TrEMBL record:
Residues 3-140 form the Nucleoside diphosphate kinase-like domain. It comes from Datura stramonium. ATP binds at residues 11, 59, 87, 93, 104, 114. Its EC number is 2.7.4.6. It catalyses: a ribonucleoside 5'-diphosphate + ATP = a ribonucleoside 5'-triphosphate + ADP; a 2'-deoxyribonucleoside 5'-diphosphate + ATP = a 2'-deoxyribonucleoside 5'-triphosphate + ADP. It comes from the Eukaryota. Its cofactor is Mg(2+). One of its GO terms (molecular function) is kinase activity. The active site is at residue 117. Belongs to the NDK family. This is Nucleoside diphosphate kinase. It is an enzyme of class 2 (transferase). The chain holds residues 78 to 228 of 228 of the full protein.
């Protein structure tokens, strides 16, 4: 497996419920590398672009209202197999179906308040990081733990 990038976002409910540290620490402890991080009030147009594949769904307007209802925490994470692994750490879309031990399984109860987003493919990881971060907001750095995580 190669090194990938994924876009992870703590949604407004996660921020309001004081879960920011808890959620960040799960990706950090797993061994992924944080390359971008900011608190951000998302404009409607950006939310619509981010979720454009869901435009025709009946829940789309509510989804946009939810994502823009307060600040989100935008993150870029890098690592070997990070895209699929982050989706596993996050758990199923409906928190009631998410396994215990996952973020949604442990911390949420409803699809419309599922506390966190994670990119679903390496291509979408790149697309979403480019959408949510400006040039200069991302850091490329060497983590000292590198050789202790990947041989
Ligand atoms: P995921 O966030 O697990 O990648 P998705 O990409 O299918 O799920 O949908 C994006 C978000 O849209 C999801 O986190 C919550 C909302 N959503 C999806 N399906 C929904 C539904 N049936 N009713 C209400 N909201 C839904
Ligand atoms: Mg998705």
């Amino acid at each position: 497996e190669g090194v990938e990038q994924t876009y992870i976002m703590i949604k407004p409910d996660g921020v309001q419920r004081g879960l920011v540290g808890e959620i960040i620490s799960r990706f950090e402890r797993k061994g992924f590398k944080l390359t971008g991080l900011k608190l951000f009030q998302c404009p409607k147009e950006l939310a619509e672009e981010h979720y454009k594949d869901l435009q025709s769904k009946p829940f789309f307007p509510k989804l946009i209202d939810y994502i823009t209802s307060g600040p989100v925490v935008c993150m870029a994470w890098e690592g070997v197999g990070v895209v699929a692994s982050a989706r596993k750490l996050i758990g199923a879309t409906n928190p009631l179906n998410a396994e215990p031990g996952t973020i949604r399984g442990d911390l949420a109860v409803q699809t419309g308040r599922n506390v966190v987003h994670g990119s679903d493919s390496p291509d979408n990881g790149k697309r979403e990081i480019a959408l949510w971060f400006k040039e200069g907001e991302l850091c490329s750095w060497e983590a000292v733990q590198g050789p202790w995580l990947v041989e």
